[in-house]
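Course assignment 3, question 2. Fill in each field.
Student: A.L.
Task: Predict the tertiary structure for the chain below.
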Amino acid sequence: MTLSFDLTAEGARDALRARAVPAEKPSLIGLTRAELGEALVASGIVPERQAKMRAQQLWHWMYVRGVSDFAGMFNISKDLRAELYKHFTVARPEIVEEQISADGTRKWLFRFPPRGAGRPVEIETVYIPEEGRGTLCISSQVGCTLTCSFCHTGTQKLVRNLTAEEILAQLLTARDRLGDFPDRDTPDGAIVPAEGRKVSNIVMMGMGEPLYNFEAVKKALLIASDGDGLSLSKRRITLSTSGVVPEIFRTGEEIGVMLAISLHATNDDLRDLLVPINKKYPLKELIAACRAYPGLSNAKRITFEYVMLKDVNDSIEDAKGLIKLLKGIPAKINLIPFNPWPGTNYQCSDWETIEKFADYINNAGYASPIRTPRGRDILAACGQLKSESERMRKVDRLALEAMMIAGHGEA
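Answer field:
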């Protein structure tokens, strides 16, 4: 059954509240090394000649050791630690709620400062454990502007972009909660294994359109993939876009991560309905941008995501259209059984229909795995993330979860 940790009770949140970011102090998380040095010099606590060395020390503590309190940075003098504490923070965001699905999927509801939004904002982040890897689904915006008709997140209006700090904070906090940083007693300088991590992959597939927040996403992903810090391979980072064509080439050129396209239709008429950004960047332009993606090869394929909607896009004719559309592009096609959410008018394709669709794609020479629905009982599955004032009342959500568990997670 689903486990839900309601962290709104004061007693359960005292420890986490102590780590929440104070609004009045800027965070050092999300700054480049150069920016770290500049911040230290500008604050007057580090002379310019020491800036590079101190920035490297902080980088190590934040991203290799996962320290969220200056007091834990043992090779920095006590006086300097006190000054750092006065001026900056490296604390984690507030966790409002943590839920654990029956299948082991975890979902966190994070709260961040308003930063122009008028009030604190909330986003959701999901961790999916699988055999041999663990994937963290990260949000890039509070809400979304794209209004894709099958997506729950699309029903929540955009509140604001997340900062690079807030994007990285999701990864750092997940690693905290999963015990994925070295123990405090691990000797400084010891080799920390890259394999065996609980968070081995990250996907920018949470709330929002990453390419409408390009600079912050770029900054966060370059820090996440830095070999002297969090050290995630760029081949294990996937950015998913609904088709912001002008930024696709930049993604490959400036970030260099794997690309996923939220496709879902093979003709403009249907895609205009399912993914309205298609009206601005139609399929011809989108596919041309994919063909020009830097580094595209059989070893660096583009993933095309295709949600299976009953009697909408799941016929063999649709499968034929998909093969024709992607001809010549090194690609993998992820078939996603539609994940239901309150108020939707869509239904998931029958399993037999999905398997026939997959067989046709496979026989045409494309890998087409069927994504196993995960975390449905806590509304953590693909397309189900939502937050802020439009979230369901807790009593309604719990009733829905009970109904879905009773139906073995099927709508």
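Instructor remarks: The longest strand covers residues 121-130. Residues 164-178 form the longest helix (15 residues).
Grade: pending
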